[in-house]
Write a structure and sequence with these properties.
- The complex is a heterotrimer, with 2 copies of chain A (about 220 residues) and 1 copy of chain B (about 260 residues).
- Chain A is an alpha+beta fold and about 220 residues long.
- Chain A is about 45% helix and about 15% strand.
- In chain A, strands 1-3-2 form a 3-stranded antiparallel sheet. In chain A, strands 5-7-6 form a 3-stranded antiparallel sheet.
- In chain A, β2 and β3 form a beta hairpin.
- The two termini of chain B are about 55 Å apart.
- The radius of gyration of chain B is 31 Å and the shape is extended.
- Chain B is mainly α.
- In chain B, α3 packs across α4, α4 crosses α5 and α8 crosses α9.
- Classes of the chains: A alpha+beta (about 220), B mainly alpha (about 260).
- Chains in contact: A-B, A-C, B-C.
- Chains A and C meet through α2 of A and α2 and α7 of C.
- β4 of chain A pairs parallel with β1 of chain B.
- Chain B: Pfam families: SMC_ScpA.
Chain lengths: ~220, ~260, ~220
C-alpha cells in the first residue's frame, strides 16, 4: 500500500482522544493472556493511536492500586500488586477431577441414600475402597447417616449440604431419574434385546424408592 | 373440505405465490405452530387481531396442497389439520347447548394465545442473542496465574459427571456392545445351514414362517431373530439360484419354493 | 472454637482501612476469571473486612473505564467494556453456532423458569430433541431445577450463573422485555383447553407464572 491513501485516511479520521486510547490499552492488556508490545497494541487500535503515551497515563492511574501495569521485557502486562500476593493463595488451589470410582460411589449415595457400604458394592458390582470413602468424607460431600436396623446394624452414608451446594441442587430429590437422564440425552445406550420396557420402569421406581425413605421424616 | 377450491380462488396472485413458496419450504418449519405463525404473518395483522378462522382455512389449504404435491407431512401437521378442521366447524356452526366442551371462541382464543406466546419467545430469543456476549463483545481476564505459592489439591466434579456416572452404573447390564445374547439370537449362518437341508422338500409355495426352527416360535424376541435370519438366508439362497421367493402385497406372507432346475 | 478468642482477635487486629480493602477486592477480582461472591471475597480477606462496601467504591472507580466491575447473580467479576469488543478479535473464541431450536429452548427456559420439558414443548409446539437439551447442559447455561409438585413430579430446567455471565445479566430479572411479557400475560402457563374439569383444577395449581420464584422477595 502506498503512503498517500493512508495520509488521506489520517486526515479524514482523527485518532481517538487520549482518554479513549487509555481505555483501549486497559481493555487489551486485561483480556490478553501474554504481555503485549506497544507495536501490537497500536496494530490493534484505530489508526493514529499512540500506545506508548496511553501507557504512561494508564500506569499512573494504576499507581498504588491493587493491580499494576508492569513492563515485561519490551512488552506490557497487568499484574496484581505484589504486596497482595497473600490474597491469591486460594487461586493456586489445584482442582482435579474425581476418580471414576469416587464419582460412581458418590452418585450411588446421592441416589440411594441412606445406603450402606455393602449396598454400594452390590450396585457397583465391585468393592469400594477405603480411600474412596475417606476422600468423599474429607471433601464433606458425604457423611455418616443413621445405622440400618438390619443384622450388624451397619452405618449408612448420606450426602451433605456441601454436596448440594457444590452441585447446585436444592435437595437430592431434584436429581433426575433414569428416564429423565435418557430423554436429556445423557444415556446413549439403548436397552438390548431381551430387556422389556417394564424392566426399565422398575429400575426407575427403585431409584426413587431409595430416596423416599430418607426424605419422609 | 368442500370450500377449498373456493378459498383458493379467492387468493390473490401474491398470496398464491406466498403459499407456493411455503410449500417448497415445508421442511424448514419447526412444527405446526411455526407454520401457523408464518401463515398468520401473511395476514399482515397484529397477532391479537388475527382471524383464527381465516388462519385455519389457510392451514388446511396448505396441507391439502402439500398432499397434492405428495410432500411427506409429519404426523404433527396432520393432527393439527384435523384439530383446525374441528375448530372451523365449531366456529361456523351454531353452538350445541348439550355440548359441555369449550366453545369454538375459547379454542380459537387459546390458539391465538399460543401463537402470540411463541412469537414473543422468538422475539425474546432474538433480543437475548443480540446482547453483548462474553468472549465476543466483552472479555474476562486473559490470564489468572498471577501468583503461585500455596499448592493445595482439591477434587471436583460436575453435576453432569455425577449423573452420567449413575446412568453408567444403572445401565451397565444393558451396555455390552460386543457381547450378544447368543442364546436368543438365531444367526443367518445357522438359518442358512437349516434351509439348505430343508429346501429339497419345498417343491410347492410354502410360507417362510413354516421354516422357523422348533422352539423359536413362541418367545417374541426369539421369533423375531429367527424370522429375520430365515428371511436373510432365503434371500441368500435366491441369489444362489436355489430358491424363488414371492410376496403378494405389503405385509402379506412371504412364500418360498425350490427353483426348478 | 468458642467465641471469646475470636472477639479478642477482632480487637487486636482491626480490619484494614476501606481504601486497602478496595485494593484487595480489586486484586482478587482481577486475578479471577470466574465471578466471585462477596462471601468468598471476605473469606480470603483479613478478618472484619466488608467486601460489599469495598465493591461499591471499586465499581465507581471503574465506571467509564476500559474494564468494568459487573454483577453476576450474587457474585462479581471484572469484564472489558463491551464497546471495545472490536479490539479483541484475537481473543474471540469461536463458539459453536446454536441451532434455532436450541436458542428458542434457551429463551423459553430463561423467561419461564423453572420450566418442564412438557411446558417447553407446549410453547414451541414441537418435541424438544435430546441433543438440544444436552447441548445447553454442556454449555452450563441450564441445569436441572427442583421438581414440580405436579403428578409425575417432573424435573424442571433453570438457567445458571454461567448463562448470566455470558449474556452480561446481573440476574434473570434483567432479561430484556421480561416485564412487558409478564404484563401481557405471555409468561402464563395456560393449560390446553379440552381437558376434563378435574384435570383442569389440578393444573390450575400448577399454572403459576414463569419466573414467579424470582419475584418472591
Amino acid at each position: 500500500m502506498s503512503d498517500i491513501p493512508e495520509e488521506k485516511e489520517e486526515s479524514l479520521f482523527d485518532a481517538p482522544p487520549m482518554a479513549e486510547q487509555e481505555r483501549m490499552v486497559e481493555a487489551i492488556l486485561f483480556a490478553t493472556a501474554e504481555p503485549v508490545t506497544t507495536a501490537e497494541l497500536e496494530a490493534r487500535m484505530p489508526h493514529g493511536c499512540d500506545a506508548a503515551e496511553a501507557l504512561v497515563y494508564l500506569r499512573k492511574r494504576y499507581e498504588g492500586r491493587g493491580v499494576h501495569v508492569v513492563r515485561v521485557g519490551d512488552a506490557w502486562a497487568m499484574r496484581t500488586a505484589s504486596d497482595l500476593g497473600f490474597l491469591m493463595q486460594k487461586e493456586t488451589v489445584e482442582t482435579r477431577k474425581l476418580s471414576r470410582a469416587a464419582i460412581e460411589t458418590l452418585a450411588i449415595i446421592a441416589y440411594h441414600q441412606p445406603v450402606t457400604r455393602a449396598e454400594i458394592e452390590e450396585i457397583r458390582g465391585v468393592s469400594v475402597s477405603r480411600g474412596t470413602v475417606d476422600q468423599l468424607l474429607e471433601l464433606e460431600w458425604i457423611r455418616f447417616g443413621r445405622r440400618k436396623m438390619t443384622p450388624g446394624r451397619p452405618v449408612t452414608f448420606v450426602v451433605t449440604p456441601t454436596f448440594l451446594d457444590h452441585f447446585g441442587l436444592e435437595n437430592a430429590r431434584d436429581l433426575p431419574g433414569l428416564k429423565e437422564l435418557r430423554s436429556a440425552g445423557l444415556l446413549e445406550n439403548r436397552p438390548p434385546l431381551g430387556v422389556t420396557v417394564s424392566d426399565q420402569d422398575d429400575e426407575d421406581d427403585q431409584a426413587v424408592e431409595g430416596q423416599s425413605e430418607l426424605f419422609e421424616d | 373440505m368442500s370450500d377449498n377450491e373456493f378459498q383458493e380462488d379467492k387468493l390473490s396472485v401474491n398470496e398464491r405465490l406466498a403459499a407456493e413458496a411455503l410449500i417448497v419450504d415445508v421442511e424448514g418449519f419447526e412444527g405446526p405452530l411455526d407454520l401457523l405463525l408464518t401463515l398468520g404473518r401473511t395476514q399482515k395483522l397484529d397477532l391479537r387481531q388475527i382471524s383464527i378462522l381465516q388462519l385455519a382455512r389457510q392451514y388446511l389449504v396448505f396441507v391439502e396442497k402439500a398432499k397434492q404435491l405428495r410432500l411427506e407431512l409429519a404426523a404433527d401437521y396432520l393432527v393439527m389439520a384435523a384439530w383446525l378442521a374441528f375448530l372451523k366447524s365449531r366456529l361456523l356452526l351454531p353452538p350445541d347447548p348439550k355440548d359441555e366442551g369449550p366453545s369454538g371462541e375459547e379454542l380459537a382464543a387459546h390458539l391465538a394465545f399460543q401463537l402470540e406466546r411463541l412469537q414473543a419467545m422468538r422475539e425474546s430469543a432474538a433480543r437475548l442473542m443480540a446482547r453483548d456476549q462474553l468472549g465476543r463483545d466483552f472479555f474476562a481476564r486473559g490470564i489468572t496465574t498471577d501468583v503461585s505459592r500455596v499448592r493445595k489439591v482439591t477434587y471436583t466434579a460436575t453435576l453432569l459427571d455425577l449423573m452420567q456416572a449413575y446412568a453408567r452404573i444403572r445401565t451397565k447390564d444393558e451396555f455390552r456392545p460386543f457381547v450378544m445374547d447368543r442364546d436368543r439370537v438365531f444367526t443367518m449362518e445357522q438359518a442358512l445351514e437349516r434351509m439348505r437341508g430343508l429346501i429339497g422338500f419345498a417343491g410347492d409355495w410354502a410360507d417362510i414362517v413354516s421354516f422357523l426352527p422348533e422352539g423359536w416360535e413362541s418367545d417374541p424376541v426369539k421369533r423375531r431373530s429367527a424370522t429375520a435370519a430365515t428371511f436373510a438366508a432365503s434371500l441368500e439362497l435366491v441369489k444362489e439360484g436355489k430358491l424363488v421367493i414371492r410376496q403378494s402385497e405389503t405385509f402379506a406372507p412371504i412364500q418360498i419354493r425350490k427353483k426348478d432346475q
